[in-house]
Amino acid sequence: MEIYETEEQQVEALKRWWKTNGGSMIAGVVAALVLVGGWNFWRSYQQDKLNQASAQYQQLLEAAEQGKHQSVEKIAERLSEQYDSTPYSAFAGLMLAKSKVEQGDLEAAKASLQQLMQNADSDELKNVARIRLVRLMLATGDYEAGLKLIAEADPTATEGFGASYQELKGDLYVAMERLGEARTAYQSALRSGQGSPLLQFKLDDISAAEIVENPAP
Length: 217
What we know:
Layout: H1 7-65, H2 69-82, H3 87-102, H4 106-119, H5 123-139, H6 143-151, H7 162-175, H8 179-192, H9 199-213
């Protein structure tokens, strides 16, 4: 290590160091300030966008509550186009499907849920969309398509929804009069402890139906 005997020597050494390194040091400080400023600006922009999307979604909920289906559709479209990076875009897709069901346009509702199931950012929203789509298939008699849609669900991404899928599978099998497979599906849902309040009644109905079909000798 170099040792300086006088204060003047220390000052001269500092000047030499600054002449050599000062430019790059200033550039580094400026770059850091730009990065910090840019990050803060981006965070502020994202928060503003989220707030705007939230306000739009609140308007959508109010329109849905008042039965204003055209307004629901317009606001949902706006959220999808302008705020697709926010969760409110996906929520709007669910509300749009619900509005279409209320208008009796089940095919449009299916299309909305299909799109959401494919494009949602979270597994939770994808599962919600898939389950609602299967329920529509049950309502429209597309039983095989509903079973296929359940089978296509990734087991690693359905945590917390397994009971709902099994119960829906049971409902589809009942509609197809495949009671043995329906009972197996209902029992699987029941073992998970997360089925609907009607699950046990559905299972009991199957047992009663089987007794009627196959009375004891």
